Inverse folding.
């Protein structure tokens, strides 16, 4: 079918996983239907191109339920992969730059050495 005979619809991305809508769209709207990310008036969503009508409320609800299941599976997989195998190099490992009380004493010692070597420390004379 030519693109002029195709209808275009935009739906917000809220509660919709991109992979789920991509997999389910042709099941609901037929083999010629396509979907792609699209921003409309500053809001992210999906642009659906189809020869017929857009998704019904029930179909969108079904996609949202499947999207929630997909996110839960992904979260469970991430959680189990973290506990199953140790990381070779921990991510975001804190690196100590200074500890309370230690940087000030180092600074004072450096200042004292500078003063005593330059002869400007009048307290010692």
């Amino acid at each position: 079918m030519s693109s002029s005979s195709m209808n275009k619809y935009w739906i917000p991305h809220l509660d919709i996983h991109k992979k789920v809508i991509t997999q389910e769209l042709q099941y609901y709207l037929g083999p010629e239907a396509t979907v792609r990310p699209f921003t409309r008036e500053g809001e992210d969503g999906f642009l659906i191109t189809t020869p017929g009508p857009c998704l019904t409320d029930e179909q969108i609800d079904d996609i949202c339920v499947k999207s929630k299941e997909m996110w839960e599976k992904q979260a469970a997989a991430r959680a189990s992969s973290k506990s199953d195998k140790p990381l070779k190099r921990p991510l975001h490992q804190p690196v100590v730059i200074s500890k309370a009380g230690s940087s000030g004493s180092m600074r004072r010692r450096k200042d004292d050495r500078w003063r005593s070597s330059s002869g400007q420390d009048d307290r010692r004379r």
The chain has a mean pLDDT of 80.
